[in-house]
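User: Could you go from structure to sequence for me? I need the amino acid at each position, not a summary. Structure tokens:
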């Protein structure tokens, strides 16, 4: 974890893109909180809405990714440079999903829309649901509806499920089916928007998936993760990190300026 001495050493960085990025983020924050175009009870919920739903900011990103003009070319180049600088800086954080992960186009934590999973297997019915911050797992006999196992927990943690005496008492097959349903409800799925092969979108020197919607979703999430890293002092303020925030600033500002 970087300390105050690292930040003092960074005072003389010639161009402070950390501050530039945060200034742009304040403007972005004001838009999604006060424009009436985004719903969410807190910053994270607003960002997840912007990443997953149709809105002007995300639409502008998609348009810039697809644009065959100077603005589009410049924007794609900044995406490529952001990706390259992230590879070089190797920034990690646990501020977004609660476990440490790389801030990377190769490891994007996308919110899982699944909140219910049901399946029948042999004589039993398996059901997992996730709502209001709780996850519920139940096993019943198909023919009678008799409850074999039921457990409700705060949050989502498969290790906590495995520690329950009722779960331990299930057969191996029943445990496997329970866990299969449970994993379908993971709050976030880690995905990559980088690709190899023919059906790709060339952005700078890198191959991305040929899907501007998915790339835009990744950009919104990565920008938010970088905001969290900076706000919580979760980076070392060196030149490699400054380079990341230089291109994060550019990637944020281009669609942001179109919101006026």
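Assistant: Here is the amino acid at each position, in order:
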């Amino acid at each position: 974890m970087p300390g105050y001495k690292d930040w003092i050493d960074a005072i003389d960085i010639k161009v402070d893109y950390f501050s530039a990025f945060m200034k742009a983020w304040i403007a972005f924050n004001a838009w999604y909180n006060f424009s009436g175009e985004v719903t969410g009870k807190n910053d994270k919920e607003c960002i997840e809405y912007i990443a997953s739903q149709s809105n002007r900011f995300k639409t502008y990103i998609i348009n810039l990714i697809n644009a065959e003009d100077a603005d589009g070319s410049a924007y794609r180049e900044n995406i490529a440079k952001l990706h390259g600088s992230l590879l070089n800086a190797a920034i990690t954080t646990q501020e977004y999903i609660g476990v440490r992960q790389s801030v990377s186009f190769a490891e994007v934590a996308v919110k899982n829309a699944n909140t219910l999973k049901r399946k029948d297997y042999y004589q039993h019915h398996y059901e997992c649901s996730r709502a209001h911050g709780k996850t519920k797992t139940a096993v019943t006999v198909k023919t009678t509806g008799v409850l074999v196992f039921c457990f409700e927990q705060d949050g989502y943690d498969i290790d906590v499920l495995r520690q329950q005496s009722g779960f331990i008492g299930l057969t191996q097959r029943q445990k496997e089916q329970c866990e299969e349903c449970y994993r379908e409800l993971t709050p976030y799925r880690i995905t990559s928007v980088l690709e190899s092969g023919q059906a790709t979108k060339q952005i700078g020197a890198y191959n991305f998936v040929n899907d501007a919607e998915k790339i835009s979703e990744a950009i919104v999430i990565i920008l938010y993760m970088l905001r969290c890293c900076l706000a919580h002092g979760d980076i070392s303020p060196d030149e490699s990190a400054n380079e990341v925030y230089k291109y994060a600033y550019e990637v944020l500002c281009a669609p942001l300026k179109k919101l006026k």
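One structural detail worth keeping in mind: The chain is about 50% helix and 20% strand.
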